[in-house]
Amino acid sequence: MTVFEAETAPGEAPPADAVAPRDSTADAPTSVARLNATIRDFVAKWNTVWVEGEITSWNVRAGNVFARLKDTRSDAQISIRIWSSVRARIPNDLGVGDHVIAAVKSDYFVKSGDFSFAVSAMKHVGLGDQLERLEKLRAQLRQEGLFDPARKKRLPFLPHVIGLITGERSDAEKDVHRNAELRWPQVRFRTEYAAVQGDRCVPDTLAALARLDADPEVDVIIIARGGGDPQTLLGFSDERLVRAVAAASTPIVSAIGHENDHPLLDDVADLRASTPTDAAKRVVPDVGEQRALIGQLRSRATTRLTQRVGHDIAQLQQLRSRPALRSPDPIIDNRAQELWLLQSRGRDTISRQLDAAGRKTSELRASLRALSPAATLARGYAIAHLDGGVILRDAADAPAGTPLTITVDRGSVAAVSDGEISEAP
Asked: What is the domain extent for residue 310?
């Protein structure tokens, strides 16, 4: 049974040039052109239908649009073409992620065998579900501060080991390795392969990230993919992956796609590179540039040092040329005379002060001697002391038997009172 026998309603004859079983055998096959023409004539009879979906790609070439439309509840997709004449009648702000309704009619190209749908009308329904979810998540993460530049870690100047997460045998891996090695031939990589699209993208990337982040030798991690339509990049906007990147202790560089691709990973990573090639250039310094910089710094340091030494030599020569340093003997002689005069004045001053102090001391000594009890004792007087050193001033205080100490000019003697009291002469 041919496709037309299966699809044609009962009683309806297939197209006149349709490929029938009797027209194609192993010995007499039909041509590709006739087969394609038959398919074209068959699908041309299908009516225009209104279809709802989400735009996942949108490429403009020569005024025409070649795009893809995805079902909002499954992964089913169709290719659509919007000719320039139709494009002028539809909204001019349509693009990837838009949720739309389109009037489409099947279109089969005989020459290439491509099947697509020609759009005759299209209008907005609202943001696509996926884009809407991503925008809500983007707003939530921004509010939590995960996009704040202050929390992003600084990349090392020259990483010892670069961790790379990418697809196995991918162009992104080759680009990163080639450009990094061109800039710094001794650079080392630790590569973890992961699916970069599909269901395995997020779990593979999370596992690779955990292994590299736990490796103490890895100084920076690059997550790289060679672009793609927004549908294939959805894994790099997954909340689990985005939060894992934000929590990583190792600086992370996002190198997903090209300039027009912008998954959430770009916002939370410590550095966003537009392409894998750009990531290699941003992470690894250029050895030629560094050598040139070192040469410039050495030249600058030599120049500054030469200038400083020359300036100091000139200053020293200027100081040496001054009269005071060229012939210092007169200055020394003058200062020596001043020093001799000062010494003489100092000696005279000290001598006068010593003489005055000697005279004052003699006067004080004479006054002290005149007032001292020793002078009285020297004239023949004595002092009587009771026990405890108390001076006896009244004879009544020394009854008979009281021990006394009699101090005279030269020493003292012990005595005992007899108790007799006599009047002083």
From this structure: 286-317
Let me know if residue 361 belongs to a domain: no
End-to-end Cα, the chain, rounded Å: 178
What 3 state SS string does 216-265 have?
Answer: CCEEEEEEEECCCCCCCCHHHHCHHHHHHHHHCCCCEEEEECCCCCCCHH
**How many angstroms separate the CA atoms of 263 and 138, rounded?**
10
Six token digits for residue 295: 């040469």
How many domains does one find in the chain? 4
Selection from 275, 205, 214 nearest residue 243 by Cα: 205
Question: pTM score, two decimals?
Answer: 0.48
Q: Please enumerate in sequence order all residues whose Cβ is within 8 A of that of 351, keeping only pairs 6 or more positions apart, or say none.
A: none
Question: CA-CA distances (angstroms) from residue 218 to 32, 79, 187, 265, 354?
Answer: 56, 44, 12, 20, 86
Contact 60, 70 (CB under 8 A): no
Half-sphere exposure of 64 (CA within 13 A, CB side): 9
CB proximity list for 383: less than 8 A, separation 6 or greater = 373, 377, 391, 406, 407
On whether both 280 and 291 belong to a single domain, the answer is no
Are 141 and 280 part of one and the same domain? yes
The Cα–Cα gap between 265 and 206 comes to 12
CA distance 144 to 267: 13
Closest to 110 in 3D by CA, of 183, 40, 22, 27: 40
Q: How far apart are CA 326 and CA 319, in angstroms?
A: 9
The dihedrals phi and psi of 119, each to the nearest 5 degrees, come to -95, 130
pLDDT digits (tens, 9 = 90+) for 23-78: 678 888 888 888 888 888 888 888 888 998 888 889 999 889 999 999 877 888 99
Neighbours of 263 (CB within 10 A): 23
Which tokens go with 284? 């690894």
